[in-house]
Design brief:
2 copies of one chain form a homodimer. In chain A, about 45% of the residues lie in helices and about 25% in strands. In chain A, the strands form 3 sheets. Chain A has a 5-stranded parallel β-sheet with strand order 2-1-3-4-5, with helices on both faces. A 4-stranded antiparallel β-sheet of chain A has the order 6-7-8-9, with helices on one face. Chain A has 2 domains: about 120 residues, 3-Layer(aba) Sandwich (Rossmann fold); about 70 residues, Winged helix-like DNA-binding domain superfamily/Winged helix DNA-binding domain (Arc Repressor Mutant, subunit A, Orthogonal Bundle). In chain A, helix 2 runs parallel beside helix 3. Chain A is of the alpha/beta class and about 230 residues long. Chain A contains 8 helices and 12 strands. The model of chain A has no long low-confidence stretch (mean pLDDT about 95). At the A-B interface, helix 4 and helix 5 of A face helix 4, helix 5, strand 6, strand 11 and strand 12 of B. Chain B binds a DNA duplex (30 and 30 nucleotides) through helix 6 and helix 8.
Chain lengths: ~230, ~230
DNA sequence: AAAAAAAGTTAAAAAATGTTAAAACAAAAA
DNA sequence: TTTTTGTTTTAACATTTTTTAACTTTTTTT
């Protein structure tokens, strides 16, 4: 999914270069020439992930613009890009609610790094949630098992947890107790039997992948092995 | 509540001045003289809100230190404070996982502003009015959900509260109890059923956004995930 | 090899949740 | 006040998930 950037900059040439660069980096960029137009457009469409705003502009300057945007949306990430490098100006920028203040001339790589840091903070990506084994993939975030790069199987919570542990311990022994403690926090006869039932279910799926096998080691546990 | 700052800086005089300043501004500051000591201390006590780390230090430099800290804690806010002002150095700083990079000599007010911005992002006060997820936007002020950047749906109070919590916990599990406690302050059978009814309603909307999915985890809760 | 224990398998029962519609309630308008 | 409108709750039925039960096979113990 592409991030949408709201760029406000009166220097057409600079804006064009910046816009092109960001597009090559996979961003969608909408450019607005001054604060007045920008505010108008933002009122019509709030759907942006980050704003890059110049300070000195005709019609409506960046500081005023950000004040007004902040009154509508106190949380959207905003970075000032400007030639004004006095401490006083920078502090004003932060005071009106900017997240960062980048001084021209700047390296685009550094602007990019700062944008990425900010975007990652505000829209945290869910931690890696895909485990590959054999010809299959377990997507923990979406609760699905994809067999042979094809068939998607929706998993119930219990199914997912069991597969998660087996996949994480690929080619290693997973004890029954380990599984039960993880699923229930304790161990008893009926829970153990429930697990047996689920193992049977999981085994049916695993069988469909010729590169995977779920081996039972009686009195020890289970081992998901990937075959060549 | 006071924020706890983890300061790593080999220049004793500079560290003392900075520490004193931050204390007058209401922060608690623990100072460590080099990367080696710092890492040792951090391993014993993870309870810090933000780290200020010098790059050039004897024993263990800041870059190495941050790499090691990030492997323990991928999310704690880190600001480099350093005299190294080459683009190459700055980019390295961001690459190893810093949130900001402040070049010496700097005005303490500006450092303070940057710290505040970062702390507000990481430990947000709940005054956000708009949350973006997938291709959609929840406008808490106007009580509307904008789907696919197009269709506006007016939300009832209950609908809004449910969506608010789901959007705030994007890609994370929201337990049914959490939702019920937030909506009603207590939990019973009928309230739980009411929630089920509303989840069905909300799910219909969410389905319209191809970048969003509302997953049910029976016995656990719900998870709003943003795809791709 | 026989008995006991553990695990595999399938089906049924129980519990939880999904879904739709109607009833009850509350706030605003006539 | 009554009517209208919108919201929340309850009810009824459907589906999914988990647990229990019953029976079978495998493994371990005696």
């Amino acid at each position: 999914m592409k991030y949408k950037i709201f760029l406000v900059e009166d220097d057409k040439h600079f804006a064009y270069v910046l816009q092109s660069f960001l597009k090559t980096k996979g961003y969608e960029v909408d450019w607005f020439e001054n604060g007045e137009i920008a505010l108008e457009k933002y009122k019509n469409n709030h759907f942006y992930h980050l704003m890059l705003i110049d300070v000195m502009m005709p019609k409506k300057d960046g500081i005023t613009l950000v004040k007004e945007i902040r009154s509508i949306n106190p949380s959207i990430p905003i970075i000032f890009i400007t030639a004004k490098s006095q401490n006083k100006d920078i502090l004003t920028g932060y005071e009106v609610g900017a997240d960062d203040y980048v001084i021209k001339p700047f390296s685009v790589d550094i602007l990019l790094a700062r944008m990425q840091v900010l975007l990652n903070r505000v829209y945290p990506r869910s931690d890696t949630t895909e485990i590959v084994a054999g010809n299959s993939l377990l997507d923990i975030n979406r609760n699905i098992l994809i067999l042979n790069n094809k068939e998607e199987i929706k998993l119930s919570p219990l199914e997912l947890e069991i597969l998660k542990i087996l996949f994480q311990n690929l080619n290693k022994l997973t004890t029954k107790n380990e599984l039960l403690m993880h699923l229930y926090g304790d161990v008893d006869y009926f829970k153990s039997r429930t697990l047996d039932v689920y193992i049977a279910k999981v085994r049916k799926w695993i069988k469909q992948d010729p590169h995977l096998e779920l081996i039972s080691l009686p009195r020890q546990g289970y081992k998901l092995v990937s075959l060549k």
